[in-house]
Amino acid sequence: xxxQPGDGRVTRTDRADAGPRSAAGSPPGxxxxxxxxxGNPTPVRPTGGTQTGSNPAGGNVTAGNPTGGGxxxxxxxxxxxxxxxxxxxxxxxxxxxxxxADVFLAAALADASDPRAWADLxxxxxxxGRSLLVGDPPAPPPDWKVAMRADGVQLIGAxxxxxxxxxxxxxxxxxxxxxxDLVARTEPGPFxxxxxxxxxxxxxxxxxxxxxxxxxRLHPPGWTEISAVCTDPAYRGQGLASRLIRxxxxxxxxxxxxxxxxxxxxxxxxxxxxxxxxxxxxRPVTFALxxxxxxxxxxxxxxxxxDDAGVGGGPAPAGxxxx
Length: 323
Description:
The protein has about 325 residues and is an alpha+beta fold. It has helices at about 75-80, 115-125, 175-185, 240-255, 270-275, 300-305, and strands at about 10, 50-55, 60, 90-95, 95-100, 105-110, 130-135, 145-155, 170, 200-205, 210-215, 225-230, 260-265, 280-290. The strands form 3 sheets. The protein has an 8-stranded mixed β-sheet with strand order 7-14-8-13-12-11-10-9, with helices on both faces. A 4-stranded antiparallel β-sheet has the order 1-4-5-6. The chain has a two-stranded antiparallel sheet with strand order 2-3.
């Protein structure tokens, strides 16, 4: 049982058998773990209405209002995900929440202007003291250190055409070593040993080897983030990244949700690809890796970049290495 924010207790609800999930609740014939490439290639897109999810802080979680306070759900996508579809993975302490480090190094505050939320996050981060925040530029208390900060953009995919791909296969836990190897060689952004627990990941193989992949990460109500888009350098220029993005979008649309993603602002080639596929820039965002005053100064420097969790590409999402 997860305690309510504000009670000062650290809790974790994490399934021991967490792994790749199918597009649960999708209509028959849509992209699922057992049927990743068939079904209606152009499912009906959502035309409005309210999509709800659970909220441990209370209030009504909707696609436009994750906390009952009027903010758009994508303004704080990490918190919105941890309060809804990813609540089973959430580590919660008072006004702060985070993913397990071996899933995703991301954390969020219910209210970044509240000093109590920062204190809750420091306790949650423990001796490593490190948290990746995604959203508005953070203004941490003076005793926090900004270890890394990068500018990015958030894009929404209302215009993305979902297309089934006969070569794409759903990746599972047995594929994780190959996925981590591909990520290490292509650096698409954070990907850890259990990131696959966040959603469905699709891959393309040639000669038995995994050469390209893409999948789902953050999952606020009504939205799903496409992430880890990467292609082996030897196979770039064949349109594999575009094909996988459309195939992942197929499962997202089939659930009545809309795809979105993040990219580093400097990765203009990735942003051009996303825009050509039908994504539009919604807002600028900041990726900030912060260290609390309790951070262990002797911790391995690689852990600061998430390497201890099997992360490739550092904390900021770099975007696809094209295919």
